[in-house]
Design a protein that fits this description.
3-stranded antiparallel β-sheet, mainly alpha, single chain
Length: 142
């Protein structure tokens, strides 16, 4: 057995966009986990089997417990953004392979194709939220 994966016909630019998108989401999710750790020490030891949805709920709860102010506002905005982005990530992860009208192999969810451009747009949204959370973690949550 060698190279059987190459029998699945899909172009490299698509796989690159898909892989980058999922990798960027992984970083985003871990920035959320680290923020939760700052909000509730020991949290990181509890995430092993949690879904992104469960982490989202706990992040929103933790952010809501931060006293009023700019940091709380930023945390709540990031938590709301993360909640929305988890749905996007789920739509990618749970998409079905299909033969697009243009002839390429793609993923689709609920009749909508995940094109390279759509994947890149999702990755950019994931990165924007991740960068905000990273800043909060390193500079504001102590």
């Amino acid at each position: 057995m060698a190279d059987e994966r190459l029998r699945i016909i899909v172009d490299d630019p698509y796989l690159l966009a898909l892989g980058r998108t999922l990798f960027v989401f992984s970083g985003l999710e871990w920035n959320v986990v680290w923020c939760c750790e700052r909000l509730r020490p020991g949290y990181i030891d509890t995430v092993d089997r949690k879904t992104a949805g469960a982490i989202t709920t706990e992040f929103v709860e933790g952010a809501a417990n931060v006293g009023p102010g700019r940091v709380a506002d930023r945390l709540m905005a990031a938590a709301a953004d993360f909640r929305r982005l988890v749905v996007v990530r789920n739509d990618i992860m749970h998409a079905q392979p299909c033969h697009a009208p243009t002839g390429e192999e793609r993923l689709q969810r609920r009749g909508e194709l995940w094109t390279v451009e759509e994947l890149e747009r999702a990755a950019d949204q994931f990165a924007i939220c991740s960068i905000e959370l990273n800043d909060l973690f390193h500079h504001w949550l102590r």
